[in-house]
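Still learning folds. Look over my entry:

…
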Amino acid sequence: MEKFSGTCPWRMKIKEDNGRITILRAVTCVKNAEIPAEINGKPVVEIAEHALAAGEFEESGSCVEILFGKADGEWNNKGIETLALPRGIKHIGRYAFLNCASLETLKVSDDIETIGAEAFMNCRSFLRLVIDRKRGEQGIALAEIVSRFSKEIEVEIIEEGKTTAKLIFPEYYELRLENEPTHFFSYTIEGAGYPYHHMFSHRKMSFQDYDALWERYISSDYEEQSAIRLAWNRIRYPYELLPSAKNLYTDFISSRFEKVGAEIIKENDKEGLGILLACAEPSREKLSLLLEKAVDRGGRTEIRALILEETHRRFSGGRNRSFEL
């Protein structure tokens, strides 16, 4: 078995064709895994069927080992929680991540051209998709991955190293019930998230179409925390956000100012707090309660200073409660 250094330990079976590498089988023993962009100077362009499925590694054919740090866990992919794929990968085969039940976050390039059927079968923990794309160019990764899940997915879009958008695709449920006397099955969909997961046209997403789903979403049986995150993400990262949609999101967020503010304080997001204060126009009482939350958190000096500054700007004529920074 050939051995190479890398940024993550792997045991792999590979195939080389015209100077390009296909990963036929690969297992790791770490939680945070990264597929190498090159092996022996040749670009990795494809992940074959079942290549990263959870299970044991069988050594046969052309095998390599990628060495990095101490590798002393189980070699079977069952423990992978975060997986990053390099930009050069164009194709992902059927059942590629089968039974990777711990996989929570997948980081991919939007240069992917094909993703095989059931690539994410039994990836029950999947929560977050991070897409790296060229500025202004949309590939198929978002549509191809999000449409394969019914659970809530958070998507972060990165362009040139900077987050340009964060999106929530809310959960829904597909129920199949059998009528025993007739042996007929009824099929129903529950949850407000179905339109979000299936809103893509020609495997692309329109932000205007995404925002247009909002009023229908909050008029149905939505989950409040998901709705808060969805609305706040669009305000916090207003990529292609039209004023009419912004107003709807702002109204929703303003009515839940305390919950949004508490989450911002938890994340110590000073820039986000500035955006919230500018759009929500909170009362003095709400600002005072928010300041108390910041004090209770400890630290958060810049956050507290921003709240005090906003309180002074808006209500300088009245009595202020005093807090130490």
